[in-house]
Write a structure and sequence with these properties.
Elements: H1 2-6, E1 21-22, H2 23-33, H3 37-48, H4 52-57, E2 62-63, H5 65-79, H6 84-88, E3 90-93, E4 96-99, H7 111-121, E5 129-133, H8 139-147, E6 152-157, H9 160-173, E7 178-182, E8 198-203, H10 225-228, H11 236-248, E9 249-258, H12 264-273, E10 277-283, E11 289-295
Parallel strand pairs: 5-6, 5-8, 6-7, 8-9
Antiparallel strand pairs: 1-2, 3-4, 9-11, 10-11
Helix pairs in contact: 2-3, 3-5, 7-8
This protein binds glutamine (GLN).
Glutamine binds next to loops.
Length: 299
């Protein structure tokens, strides 16, 4: 048993027999604690550096006491409700891994819809100027910047901690055509040397109403409240973004916004009232209204 284990890439060679634990033993203990199997494998993989395939094919791999302790702390935090993305420090979006911290909203697959719609709208424009307001981890701005290397992308956030996460992700993923500005919505651009008129403005702003019970449930309890809710009716920031957009959009430029499943009609009304043309709403994979937008007419 020990001889077999010593052939495996165990991180600590001088384990005393009492402190020996293996992947299989650790996973069994986590299962008894009530942690779902997938989450247990993700945490063990994260702490040991073993891939999820290796957890199956090398389940006699030795785990030393310090790593076992780290795994049990992560498991306890998970069982207390902390989101997996914060425990692992990362989440996938559009096929790439983004670093996330509790300073930013956890990337949602729903937001891929906004990115796809945005890329469609700038398909025929050369070197488009793009603005992503309230960028958080930077998923929208960075995915657009990487899909369109000719684009000049600006990412803003009112939180310096969030902007640091976004810039770290931009650097790690090689989005060199992205710049950042700190501040509230269009106010962030006041001091920055940003273009006056953008071809595309996108945002996934805080749109959950203060009274929405979801704020007290699941992952949302651990996410920054300022990234989730406007502490109002859910439309306050959406309204501010729509109202300010015509002044910062080029002729025929597009504004695209993510919003709640029940806000499509309200956002279309805001866009129409602000003079936008071609106003539309698109549905996410679950069939919910998730993203609305419009074009600033040429004249
Ligand atoms: N889509 C997120 C949720 O419903 C909210 C994101 C946001 O407010 N921008 O959990």
């Amino acid at each position: 048993m020990l001889a077999a284990r010593s052939r495996l890439p165990c991180p600590v060679s001088a384990l005393s027999p009492d402190s020996l634990s293996t992947v299989a033993v650790t996973l069994a203990a986590l299962a008894r604690s009530g942690l779902p199997a997938l989450e247990a494998r993700m945490l063990v993989s994260h702490a040991t550096g073993l891939s999820r395939v290796q957890l199956i094919t090398q389940d006699t791999y030795g785990i030393d006491e310090a790593v076992r302790q780290q795994i049990s702390e992560l498991a306890a935090r998970r069982l207390a409700g902390e989101p997996m993305a914060y425990l692992l420090g990362e989440r996938e979006f559009f096929g790439r891994t983004f670093k996330v911290t509790p300073a930013v909203l956890i990337p949602r697959p729903d937001t891929e819809l906004l990115v796809e719609q945005a890329l469609d709208r700038i398909e025929d424009r050369d070197a488009p100027d793009v603005l992503d307001m309230g960028t958080g981890s930077g998923i929208i701005a960075i995915t657009i910047a990487l899909a369109r290397r000719d684009a000049r992308v600006w990412a803003t956030d009112a939180s310096a901690d969030a902007l640091a996460v976004a810039m770290g992700n931009a650097q790690a993923l090689g989005a060199t055509n992205l710049r950042a500005a700190l501040g509230d919505w269009y106010g962030a651009l006041a001091e920055a040397d940003a273009p006056h008129a953008f071809d595309l403005i996108v945002s996934n702003p805080p749109y959950i109403a203060a009274t929405d019970e979801h704020l007290g449930q699941g992952d949302l309890r651990f996410e920054p409240a300022s990234a989730l809710t406007d502490h109002d009716d859910g439309l306050r920031h959406l309204r501010a973004i729509v109202t300010g957009a015509p002044a910062r959009l080029a002729a025929d430029g597009w504004l695209l916004l993510e919003h709640g499943y029940d806000q499509g009609e309200a956002v279309r009304t805001l866009l129409t009232e602000a003079g936008f043309a071609d106003v539309f709403t698109a549905q996410d994979l679950a069939g919910h209204d998730r993203c609305s937008g419009g074009r600033r007419p040429a004249a």
